[in-house]
Amino acid sequence: MSGETSAADFKRTPAEPRAARTILLLRDAPEYQVLMVRRHHQIDFASGALVFPGGKMHPGDDDPRWRDHVTGWDEIDTTQRALRIGAIREAFEEAGILLATYPDGRPFSSVCDAAARRQVDSGELAFLGVVAGLGVKLSLTALTVFARWITPEMMPKRFDTWFYAAHAPADQVAICDGHETVDAEWIAPESVLDLTRTGARTVIFPTLMNVKLLAEADSAADCLARADARPLVTVLPQVETRDGERVLTIPPDAGYGDITQSLASLKG
Fold first, then answer.
1. Is it the case that residue 266 has pLDDT exceeding 80?
2. Are the C-beta atoms of 185 and 33 separated by less than 8 Å?
3. Which residues, at least 6 apart from 4, have a Cβ–Cβ distance to it below 8 Å?
4. pLDDT for 106-115, tens place per residue?
5. Given 91, 211, 227, 239, which is the most exposed site by the fewest CB atoms within 10 A?
6. How many CB atoms lie within 10 A of CB 74?
7. Cβ proximity of 201 and 179 under 8 Å
8. What phi and psi, each to the nearest 5 degrees, are found at residue 161?
9. Rounded to whole angstroms, how far apart are CA atoms 193 and 72?
10. Which residues of 146-157 are buried (b: 16+ CB within 10 A; e: fewer)?
11. What does the pLDDT read at residue 267?
């Protein structure tokens, strides 16, 4: 042995994934559709891509005072409470949709205040204060776990992202925030796949895989039932070399089938 050390001997320690969550809001009229937003082109992650509303954890998401301002507190464990509160907050910030009910059980149906959305996003205003001021409670049990994806280890920025699906409130209008998102669109899952095939829209790999799962259902209720029945397998894509090409692979039992994705073709 020469005693020399090659670069291969020094493997970079993978970045620790940051907790994140995203929400798939579903409706059946005028057809089976999911709400997607287009990321601002100046955002550093997935700029310009079509995505589901979502983002990183905020400090207030796990505030114990939420106990009095949510339904389903005792049915959900501590970690899931914070994740679901964060998912609902992201839908409020990015799309102006609030999954909440009044004390008498009526769903919240007002237009979300644009200034409050901006202030919550910037950290100037606590989401808990907004919800308390409206006299409503967030509906934690309205969310169904859909998937969980962790960014591959070779990426410099990594996220541990929980995907949730829920019926969208019938009487609320989705409006993009104009900051992180520049468009909010109700779109059939099959249409997303068609737009991706033609290159008309950019959809990053995890989002595309979950759109394909959405497309297997024929209604919001069918989608939620499938998600509830599907075993949750955490997806941590691995890099392999096949036929001389570097590809991403995901667990075959995660519900997406036997998937390989060329690293050279990935977007976002």
1. no
2. no
3. none
4. 999 999 999 9
5. 239
6. 8
7. no
8. -105, 125
9. 35
10. bbbbbbbbeeee
11. 46
Q: Read off the DSSP letter of residue 47.
A: T
What is the CA 210 to chain-centroid distance, rounded? Answer: 10
Query: Which is it for the CA torsion 204, 207, 213, 214, positive or negative?
Result: negative
| Topology of domain 13-231, CATH | Nucleoside Triphosphate Pyrophosphohydrolase (3.90.79)
Amino acid at 44: D
Q: Which two tokens stand for residue 243?
A: 């036929």
Residue type at position 15: A
- With a cut of 50, say whether residue 53 has pLDDT above it: yes
For the segment 244-255, what is each residue's pLDDT rounded down to a tens digit?
Answer: 888 889 999 999
Go through the chain and tell me how many residues it has: 268
* CA dihedral of 62, 67, 72, 78, whole degrees rounded to 10: 30
The domain ranges of the chain are 13-231
How many angstroms separate the CA atoms of 168 and 172, rounded?
8
